[in-house]
Amino acid sequence: MSSSTVARSNGHSTSTSSSKKLQQRQEQQQSRGAVPALTTLVRDVLTSQRLFWLTAAGVLLGEVALTALIIKKVPYTEIDYATYIQQADVFLRGERDYFKITGDTGPCVYPAGHLYIYSLFHIFSSGTTNIPAAQLAFGLLYLLNLAVVISLYHLAGAPTALLPFLAISKRLHSIYALRLFNDPFAMFFFYISVLLLCRKKWTSAVILFSTALSIKMNILLFMPALATILFRAVGLPRALPFAAAFFAVQILLSLPFTLPSPSTRAHYLSQAFDLSRVFLYKWTVNWRMVPESAFLSKGFARVLLGAHVSLLGLFGAWRWTGIGFLGWSWLRLHWNGPVGVIAPAAVQHKTPDEKKKLEATFAPTADYILSALFSANLIGIICSRSLHYQFYSWYAHQIPFLLWRTELPIHLK
């Protein structure tokens, strides 16, 4: 082999070796660059709304498949649905006295909206002969409710990482698709009303809120926060027509039961809005550690009521309004509505206390609306004398948001 051939061969080997080293260095640089990029992506998903709608679509599609699978594979559980249908049947046959609208587990104890909904199900599912059709309707309700909640999270600026937590509850699937309780309908109308509040559609929001209350009385737990939101949004004089709209819905929906006679009116009000009702001890979930005698005592009820009112007062003064910071002058300042709309830059470099003082002066944001309503509900739930398993639907979709809104370190949230 000639010396020139050897030289060319050595040159080629050297060139190949250099090329491989260069390629290895580039791969190492790309690998090192991929780690920060992945870290940035994870951080953004945890703290911002990056990939929000893509994740939301994945969650919803997964829930479509999972809910359909549950309905197909898991047996339906009869608890109250047959009673609801029996009560609707009595109503559809012309009875308007709430004392006489009964089923296997007793008389109807829910407002008129409940009867109207289950009257539709009585027709749709042929009484109780076509339970799968009713399950499909409740499955669709579950998905629609989830979509509305996701929209609320987006409006409030909640990070993408919270979305999977909205769809991992075994009990929620059971409450909706396997038990057919009335709680999901009340919460669905409530969440739509919150969506309208966030979009400043005050009258429509109040009408939907009152509609939710016409299905189940637990919606009253949100009332203190709703009143505060409307006061902050438009002031007291302009909020009064909203109160009129709220009561008008209740009056109109109750007319079939309140018009016939004074006795049917009294029976409706005492059954549908019985604030003194005491649930059976055997069904309670939250106070099982308390002896039954204490659970049923008036003293225990007074303690819970006092705690409820006190917590609402604290949150009302320090979280929902500026009364705790500015005193009663805050009420005078907001009597005719907010003083303006807060700019994000205005609170960017403020301490948490300074942010609260500043935010308490301006019009309610979507973040504020959700925080106020959800915290009012949680206070009421904590102070409730009795919670049943289906009541989980009252707050399940709110817990991730409330945890995110705390000032805890992210790893504790």
Automatic annotation (TrEMBL):
Any one Pfam family match given in the protein's UniProt record, by short name: ALG3
Signal peptide limits: none
Subcellular compartments: Endoplasmic reticulum membrane
Membrane topology listed for this record: Multi-pass membrane protein
Molecular functions (GO terms): dol-P-Man:Man(5)GlcNAc(2)-PP-Dol alpha-1,3-mannosyltransferase activity
Composition bias, Low complexity: 13-32
Domain of life: Eukaryota
Metabolic or biological pathway, per its Swiss-Prot or TrEMBL entry: Protein modification; protein glycosylation
Keywords noted in UniProt: Endoplasmic reticulum, Glycosyltransferase, Membrane, Transferase, Transmembrane, Transmembrane helix
Residue segments, region Disordered: 1-33
TM helices/strands, residue ranges: 51-71, 136-156, 176-198, 205-227, 239-259, 299-320, 368-387
Listed Polar residues bias regions: 1-12
Catalytic activity: an alpha-D-Man-(1->2)-alpha-D-Man-(1->2)-alpha-D-Man-(1->3)-[alpha-D-Man-(1->6)]-beta-D-Man-(1->4)-beta-D-GlcNAc-(1->4)-alpha-D-GlcNAc-diphospho-di-trans,poly-cis-dolichol + a di-trans,poly-cis-dolichyl beta-D-mannosyl phosphate = an alpha-D-Man-(1->2)-alpha-D-Man-(1->2)-alpha-D-Man-(1->3)-[alpha-D-Man-(1->3)-alpha-D-Man-(1->6)]-beta-D-Man-(1->4)-beta-D-GlcNAc-(1->4)-alpha-D-GlcNAc-diphospho-di-trans,poly-cis-dolichol + a di-trans,poly-cis-dolichyl phosphate + H(+)
EC number in record: 2.4.1.258
Xref: InterPro entries: Glycosyltransferase_ALG3
Cellular component GO terms, alphabetical: endoplasmic reticulum membrane
Stated role: Dol-P-Man:Man(5)GlcNAc(2)-PP-Dol alpha-1,3-mannosyltransferase that operates in the biosynthetic pathway of dolichol-linked oligosaccharides, the glycan precursors employed in protein asparagine (N)-glycosylation. The assembly of dolichol-linked oligosaccharides begins on the cytosolic side of the endoplasmic reticulum membrane and finishes in its lumen. The sequential addition of sugars to dolichol pyrophosphate produces dolichol-linked oligosaccharides containing fourteen sugars, including two GlcNAcs, nine mannoses and three glucoses.
Family: Belongs to the glycosyltransferase ALG3 family.
Name used for this protein in its record: Dol-P-Man:Man(5)GlcNAc(2)-PP-Dol alpha-1,3-mannosyltransferase
Encoding gene, per UniProt annotation: ALG3_2
